[in-house]
Amino acid sequence: MNYTYIKGVPNEELVKGMQDLHKHIFEGAELEVSELKEKPQLLCCVAIDNARLAGFKLGYEIEEGKFYSWLGGVHTDFRGQGVASHLMELQHKVVQESGYKKIRTIGRNHRRAMLILNLKHGFNVIETFISKKGTHKIILEKDL
């Protein structure tokens, strides 16, 4: 497995791979290129296995010194192999080296594996809220 990162919007081939993987992970939901282009200081961390995208983790700056870990996932064929942990560690390393002091993410109760992973990697629950769509969300934050 090869882990790497791209600052900014990746090339078309990698974006297409992320879009396909996003659909696979999130029940057919679309990941639009325009969404990627509008995120300040976008960071894309990817896991590639023999030219196949196994997982990705996206994030961006939300304010000076604070980074938001936005979106990510691992293909079902690669789950249970530590891919998500490696992607998170890579993201946190790059973010910290870039001068950020805090990293934040928002999770959902029904995605328990991701919540557990965040807690194992030092995030703390700081707040909960109900979204406009009526979904319960959990805000987690970590000092870098």
UniProtKB/TrEMBL annotation:
Coiled coil: none annotated. One of its GO terms (molecular function) is acyltransferase activity, transferring groups other than amino-acyl groups. It holds the Pfam family Acetyltransf_7. It comes from the Bacteria. Gene3D superfamilies: 3.40.630.30. Residues 1-144 form the N-acetyltransferase domain. InterPro entries: Acyl_CoA_acyltransferase, GNAT_dom. CDD domains: NAT_SF. This is N-acetyltransferase domain-containing protein. It comes from Viridibacillus arvi.
